[in-house]
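Record passed on here:
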Amino acid sequence: MKQPNEKQKKFCREYVKDFNATQAYIKAGYSKNGAMQSSFKLLINTDIQVFLSSLIDKQAEKADITVQEVIADLKTMKDRCMQACQVLNKKGKPTGVWKFDSSGAIKSLELLGRYLTMFSDKLIVKHDLSDLLEEIENESDRGLPKVKK
C-alpha cells in the first residue's frame, strides 16, 4: 500500500474532526464542485482507509478511553439515574414521594441500545399482497381497467 499524498492526508485529518466527508474534502483544498461524490471516492480508497484508521486509533489513544469503559460508564449512569430518592419538604422531612432522573436514565439506555443496534429507524412492512390484488380486481369490476397478473 502506498501513502496518501499531502492533500489526501489533509482530507483525512479534517475528516476525523467531525466525520463530514464533503466538508473535509473542501477544507483540504479540493473543489466544491462534486465534493460529495469525490469525497466518497476518497473514503473507499483502501490507502485512505488505512491512513484514517491509524488517525482514529491515535485519537482513541489520546482520549485514553475504550468502548468498554464508555459502556460501563453508561451502565453506571443508568443505574444512578434509576435510583429513587425521597422528596423532602422545606423542613427536611420526607413527603412520601420518591423521584428519579428519568431523562438521564432514558438517554443512557438510548445510547446503550443504539450501540447494541437494538433500535432501527427503518420500517419493515410485511403484507400479503393477494388481498390487495383482489381488492383492485373488485374495483376494476366497477369500470376501471383490469390489472394484469
Notes: The helical segments are 6-18, 21-27, 35-43, 46-63, 67-82, 102-115, 129-140. Residues 6-63 form a domain with the Arc Repressor Mutant, subunit A fold (CATH 1.10.10.1400). The mean pLDDT is 85.
